[in-house]
Design brief:
The protein is α+β, with helices and mostly antiparallel strands and 76 residues long. It has three helices and three strands. A three-stranded antiparallel beta sheet has the order 1-2-3. The C terminus is likely disordered.
Length: 76
Amino acid sequence: MVFLNMENFIIRLYRFEKDNPRTLVGLVEKPGKERRIGFTTMDELWEILNSSIGEKMGEDRDHCNSKAGGSKPGGR
């Protein structure tokens, strides 16, 4: 029997181009965690969601964080 692990995320979209839906800016967070991961393209969002974010929320994701302010103010 195969069991799938389901995770919940909050995805905040702040900006996108109407004529180019692959270009969007936002944050991903996991409920109950203080860490937020920023993204600037649909491909980055997909990478974040497919990379077992539950395990990655504590790790440094510099390529995403530097683009869209990947953590809460105050260094959390």
